[in-house]
Task: structure prediction
Amino acid sequence: QGQLVESGGGLVQSGGSLRLSCAASLFSSAYYTIAWFRQAPGKEREGVSCISSSDGSTRYVDSVKGRFTVSGDNANHTWYLQMNSLKPEDTGVYYCAAGPSILCMRDFDNVPTSYDYWGQGTQVTVSS
Result:
């Protein structure tokens, strides 16, 4: 059974930066997508970014383009979401999720039910 563990959340002022990490283990396939989602209080879970381990494709939702960068260390099964120029509207619980590699190869499949594995989430709070 695959496992994902996020870390790196916290409280930061508007304009600040955070780097989230997602450590993965026990996956049966070497080819998969790692996606980052976030959920603000009272709102639906929103896809933020994804990276495909098979071809390195990356995708971003428009609201974070130019500010967030997703990357991965396949050898160590750890993925990162570097978040710069943070805004109060970026506040929420951030989750990493894993699913088939096709979910990020041509477009970003940001439907949560498309993903097989989820981490427990890490809180990001951006103060104004």
